[in-house]
Amino acid sequence: MIQKSPESPAYDEHIGVPLVLDHVSVSFSTPSGPARAVNDVSLTLNQGEILGLVGESGSGKSTLAFTIMGLLPDGAQFDSGSVRVLGSDLYGMNPETLRTFRWKRIAMVFQSAMNALNPVMTVEAHIMDTLQSHNPGIRPEDARRRMNEILDLVKIDPRRARSFPHELSGGMKQRIVLAIAMIFNPPVLLMDEPTTALDVVVQRSILDQVREIQAERQMAILFISHDFSLVRSLAHRVAIMYAGRIVEITGSLERSGPHHPYTEGLMRAIPELGEDDVKIVGIPGNPPDLLHLPEGCPFHPRCPVAFNRCKVEAPPMVQVNDALIACHQYTEPGKEGLA
Amino acid sequence: MRFFLNRIGFLLLSVWAAITVNFLIPRMMPGSPVDAILAHFQSEGAPLGPNALHALEQQFGLSHAPLWTQYFGYVNNLFHGQLGTSITYYPLTVTEVIGRSLPWTLGLAGTATIISVLLGTFLGIYAAWHRGTRIDATLTTVTMFTSAIPYFWIALILVYLFGFELNWFPQLHAFTTLSNGVPWWRFSADVLYHAVLPGATIVISAIGGWLVGMRNNMVQTLGEDYVTFARARGVRDRRLMVFYAARNAILPNLTGFAMAIGFVVGGALLTEVVFSYPGIGMQLLTAVENEDYPLMQGIFLIIALAVLLANFLVELIYGLLDPRVRQGE
Ligand SMILES: Nc1ncnc2c1ncn2[C@@H]1O[C@H](COP(=O)(O)OP(=O)(O)OP(=O)(O)O)[C@@H](O)[C@H]1O
Ligand SMILES: [Mg+2]
């Protein structure tokens, strides 16, 4: 399955790296032209790391996750770039190889766990289906043992396996979807807002389980959320997405310390514990329309520190301390700290 | 089990309602059907015997007994399979007339309906799976076209082309008047041969609806998260198509199936007329032309019962296929 390709000398370095995205672009064809939902995204997810991915609704987080899974919906097109999972080029695989690769090497917890289960199938049928699709000759007792193990892992009573999806609470469905994602112990896991629809208590207990399982197995997790404080408490590094682009990847999640103006805006929008004057400030303006992206930096119409260059030229990613930031403040030496 | 009893209860209730309405309607009609009937027989110069008169009175309330006595008499007759005497086919009873026509209708319209439902559903699944391709576009356009052509028009074209011009198939009737004693298989072959054109008419005009309906439902289920999730989990295409997408896409169509199967009993009126096919549809036409109220009433009752029964069966199937329905009661 691993093929050497002479055109990419960087290839060998990536063997074993859970996930490497290289200049990935994806667009939806719409009646009024292509809408680029993922725009030139490059990022790396390392062994044993939880990488958070944060952005407003519609910024392209789910589309990016589906791109990584090779599961683009109707109307979406993979324009350019490459997705390497554990060194293998996902978009260079034939469909059958991809089918068996997926879920064993990389799995995903869907944003809408409520709708991820077939309404006419029991939980058990879902789990058996998954096991048999990858291992047609599996013995029923082995399959059942594995089912009980993973249900145990997410603290679901195995007797629940007989239930149909509509008989389960939202939290249970979420746990079962998580269990199904963990069924083959995949080294790479994508979690797309796994707890957004749940109340805080259920959310906490599920996240604790995720943390526990992750620490035990040293999985690499891409954790998607629009809840900045949640991601901050969970992730080692955070990538911030805006209008289909990654505008910052940072290991420093403190407010201080250089950030993209958009990141600063997100941070200001959450109350800090123990702060005297809790002042929540939103980011003025609206997220851009993907069909009419502004010239230059897509954030400039909402940016408090934008200057002329921002309106004409898209900023490249540059290293600033611990972070990679795409902002002209940091590419133009004289302008730093303008804010 | 509770679901089952519930449905049975509903079936009995609605059957009772249908029977009762069937009893009341002729009694509430302005003018008396009985007068029409009597006039008919008078003009034929064949006055009714006292038995037939009595039956008519019972059926249409000419008698002066209180309504509820009439009602019980009527229900009692029904339970003994007595729907009255046909005027057109006197002295045959309505039950006998229906009994002779029903097999033809069930055989022709029933088979043709089942073929169009099955074929349409399969092609719909196929088109949805290959959505956006040329095959999908072709199937959808062609069947939209065929289902837009008026029904009797298809029949006439088929008769003209294959019956008259090419002479491949018989133009009329359900079978050749063969002498007695032909072996059963020759007779069956003859019946099948006669059924081709009328059957094709029904299939051609009905298949498009099923195909497009199934295709659209399935395109929708294919976009559901549970289908994407199953694909992500490595579920193979064939399984994905059948057990995830098609399985859920069929559910909304079941009610339509029920109606179609139920109405089969009413006969494919126009088809039967064009092809002079001796089914219920033909009888209904004859009954209307001859003001044969007992026969009409009997046919309407049979149609109503068939629709109710088909609905009942489909609800049971629905319960089998959809766990939410089973427990939702
Ligand atoms: N099937 C589709 N057809 C056309 N455009 C789409 C489709 N799916 C998503 N988009 C567009 O792509 C963009 C990114 O959507 P996406 O679902 O990836 O956002 P998201 O960041 O996951 O949002 P959320 O936080 O609400 O889940 C949006 O502008 C959306 O309108
Ligand atoms: Mg999303």
How would you describe the overall organization of this protein?
The complex is a heterodimer of chains A (339) and B (329). Chain A is 27% helix and 22% strand. Chain A is of the alpha/beta class. Chain A has a domain at 2-6 and 19-105 and 186-330: Rossmann fold (3-Layer(aba) Sandwich). In chain A, the strands form two sheets. An eight-stranded mixed sheet of chain A has the order 6-7-8-3-9-10-12-11, with helices on both faces. Chain A has a four-stranded antiparallel sheet with strand order 2-1-4-5. In chain A, strand 1 (19-30) and strand 2 (33-45) form a beta hairpin. The radius of gyration of chain A is 21 Å and the shape is globular. By secondary structure, chain B is mostly helical. Chain B has a domain at 102-326: MetI-like (MetI-like fold, Orthogonal Bundle), CATH 1.10.3720. Chain B is built from 15 helices and no strands. In chain B, helix 6 packs across helix 8, helix 7 (151-165) packs across helix 8 and helix 9 (225-232) packs antiparallel against helix 10 (237-250). The longest helix of chain B has 39 residues, at 184-222. The radius of gyration of chain B is 24 Å and the shape is globular. The relative contact order of chain B is 0.14. The interface between A and B is medium-sized, with 30 and 25 residues. Bound molecules: adenosine-5'-triphosphate and magnesium ion. Magnesium ion is lined by residues 61-62, 111, 192 of chain A.
Quick recap:
Chain A is an alpha/beta fold and 339 residues long.
User: Which sheet architecture does the biggest sheet of chain A show?
Assistant: 8 strands, mixed
CATH architecture of the domain at 102-326 in chain B: Orthogonal Bundle
Calculate Rg of chain B over CA atoms: 24 Å
CATH class bucket of the domain at 2-6 and 19-105 and 186-330 in chain A: Alpha Beta
Major β-sheet strand ordering of chain A? 6-7-8-3-9-10-12-11
The proportion of strand residues of chain A reads: 15-25%
Name of the CATH first level of the domain at 102-326 in chain B: Mainly Alpha
Our measurement of the CA-to-CA distance between the termini of chain A, rounded to an integer number of angstroms, reads 50 Å
Number of strands of chain A: 12
- Tertiary shape of chain B: globular
| Number of alpha- plus pi-helical segments of chain A | 9
Helix content of chain A: 25-40%
Order of helices and strands of chain B: HHHHHHHHHHHHHHH
Helix content of chain B: over 70%
> What is the N-to-C succession of helices and strands of chain A?
EEEHEEHEHHHEHEHEEHEEH
Oligomeric organization of the protein chains: heterodimer
